Structures
1.
Amino acid sequence: DSGVTQTPKHLITATGQRVTLRCSPRSGDLSVYWYQQSLDQGLQFLIQYYNGEERAKGNILERFSAQQFPDLHSELNLSSLELGDSALYFCASSASGSSYEQYFGPGTRLTVT
Amino acid sequence: LAKTTQPISMDSYEGQEVNITCSHNNIATNDYITWYQQFPSQGPRFIIQGYKTKVTNEVASLFIPADRKSSTLSLPRVSLSDTAVYYCLVGDRSNYQLIWGAGTKLIIKP
């Protein structure tokens, strides 16, 4: 158990809909990272937050947005969903903003039908 | 930005030492190299991190040559439970960009 929690574990929704994925980092960790992993593919870095502020952006679509709240939990919002958005979405946390020793959550499996 | 290249797959046998190499020709001065292990349907797990020369912990060693254009993850005496996908990550501490390799699928045979 990494100490990072993600909800929900599974999500099934229809094209065009909007969903919110939630992540709680390990106790004391200030950074949160979001990743997308499509079936049998590698990890695509989406975005990083550090202590409530956006720190780095990767390949995040404009239809996707995220935020980190004062209690350090984070949400990833996916809108106008397409079939190709079906994937595992992982959240990871780290102690600082520049540490790449990340601890990953169990992921949310999103299926868009 | 550095681009990382890893072999798509590797096979080995129980008890052998396995070396997985990642190429990162455009690595920048501030970039660190990190390796992760991922089992199916689980989040990746941190293995080891380094900047140069050699780093060793209880599960692996990481070798980085002087030019830092590649790195090699060494797993001593592998077992069947080491069958997994291994990713290298190059992280730039100056701009926080993360470049993940495509992953190496390691299969350990009895």
2.
Amino acid sequence: QKEVEQDPGPLSVPEGAIVSLNCTYSNSAFQYFMWYRQYSRKGPELLMYTYSSGNKEDGRFTAQVDKSSKYISLFIRDSQPSDSATYLCAMKGGSTLGRLYFGRGTQLTVWP
Amino acid sequence: GAVVSQHPSRVICKSGTSVKIECRSLDFQATTMFWYRQFPKQSLMLMATSNEGSKATYEQGVEKDKFLINHASLTLSTLTVTSAHPEDSSFYICSARAPHGQSYEQYFGPGTRLTVT
């Protein structure tokens, strides 16, 4: 079993839709949870950063962490064509200096 | 924000030659940099952790003699793919660790696409 599971999609939605992206994980030691956005042929860009359980909101993006279920989510409201990218979840253990464990990434297309 | 650059962005080389990829932190000093490899529609696979002034730590299954990593300064790490073969063709991405609020986070370079013919 991989440490981080993420449905690769692809996911295709119309502009303005609410998008829900999810990851599950098996390692209960993970404490830091991140979402990265990666455009085609580019490096990942840090989008959201959350420590432990709870919600975090930044503009149209909301990250949720449920450690009891080992489940994290990223919601995108009022999705735009410019949101079309691959979204990777990542997480690490109790040390902020630890290595990252990535999901496979979900490919999202928002069509106008 | 923390900016990381990579050079070259794309390289094509012949089988048997060596290729060097540079990773630079432009506006901060990075004592630790990471090298990843990514295949199409796959996640990032950590190859090695590079610490300034010391030997790199390689992940299991990564050949250290084939993928030479040097972290000679606080702003530069290099990855050299020695005696490249077509199966080494991939997207190589580096990241550098930088402060993020009261924590640390990895900031990624734009990647280097290597094609070995």
